[in-house]
Specification:
It is globular, with a radius of gyration of 18 Å. Helix content is 47%, strand content 15%. By secondary structure, it is an alpha/beta fold. Strands 1, 2, 3, 4, 5, 6, 7 and 8 form an 8-stranded mixed beta sheet that branches. The longest helix has 27 residues. It has 11 helices and 8 strands.
Length: 287
């Protein structure tokens, strides 16, 4: 099937991204590919596996079957690495050894993949690409997934970056700037979800942790307002039929879910929901 001229937007949400992997696995099985893909945070992992045409890979990375390959650190490792997650395992050992990533297919793809990061110096979103350097591609994905307070800042080309969701959680406006008439948005939270403003105590922690980067602190503290405004905008576009949106219709797993059965169930929900909505998606594409 020919690549469809459309932009696919993938929200993050840490382990909630396993819902998106179910959605994309079904689309890949149907040979449904779009010309443009934008991935944010965990959505960036889904995005690159979609472009490399590897159904099941994100699922297998998110639901490791061997205890030795758990991507969560224990308390001792957390204090040593300053991270709740083993980012070296996820972005080095998995793609290069344990669950190989098909770099060749990715780099030779006709699809354009943009990975959203947040520049710590400017506090603004950047939509990054890489078409030949394996290490840099994985470093960009790592940066996009680097949750504030929970994982370290990542330097790419000498610039410090954090989670892309801080500055642009669901880049539907950027997707419209690309110019494709059709936009497909995969969210990882239920209909009507809105973010709460961080508590004063948490705000103080952010200011202390990132005192060297005042612009990123400002972005973090404004995130709930910007996210909720984006959700309102998406709701309006969806009602007008201008975009196609898929959201989980069951309670999402927690952001750092460890239970393999819960993760697999959420993955299967994404797969089955996309299967049920495939006709509606094709109708949207045909308009």
């Amino acid at each position: 099937m020919a690549i469809k001229k459309a932009t696919l937007v993938l929200e993050g949400g840490a382990t909630r991204g396993v819902f998106t992997s179910g959605v994309l696995d079904y689309l890949m099985e149907q040979d449904f590919y779009t010309s443009n893909v934008i991935g944010v945070s965990a959505g960036s992992c889904n995005a690159v596996d979609y472009v490399s045409k590897q159904p099941g890979r994100t699922r297998d990375c998110m639901i490791p079957t061997e205890k030795s390959n758990s991507y969560y650190y224990g308390v001792r490792d957390f204090f040593r690495e300053k991270s709740v997650m083993n980012m070296d395992l996820i972005f080095e050992k998995f793609p290069n050894e344990l669950i190989p990533f098909d770099f060749d297919t990715y780099f030779n793809s006709e699809m354009k993949c943009e990975i959203v990061t947040t520049n710590c110096i400017t506090g603004k979103a950047e939509y990054m690409t890489e078409d030949h350097d394996r290490e840099r591609l994985m470093k960009i994905c790592r940066a996009s997934c680097s949750m504030p307070l929970l994982t370290p800042i990542v330097n790419v080309d000498g610039v410090p970056y954090l989670d892309g969701g801080l500055a642009d959680s669901v880049p539907v406006r950027h997707a419209r700037e690309i110019g494709n008439e059709k936009i497909i948005v995969v969210l990882t939270k239920n209909p009507g979800y809105r973010k709460k403003t961080p508590s004063p105590a948490l705000q103080r922690i952010y200011r202390r942790a990132y005192k060297s980067y005042p612009n990123v602190v400002r972005t973090i503290l404004r995130r709930s307002f910007m996210y909720n405004r984006t959700m309102n905008h998406i709701d309006q576009l969806e009602k007008k039929g201008e975009i196609f949106v898929l959201r989980p219709l069951v309670k999402p797993v927690s952001r750092l879910e460890r239970n393999g059965d819960a993760l697999l169930s959420f993955y299967e929900h994404g797969y089955k929901l996309m299967e049920r909505k495939m006709d509606a998606l094709m109708e949207y594409m045909a308009k």
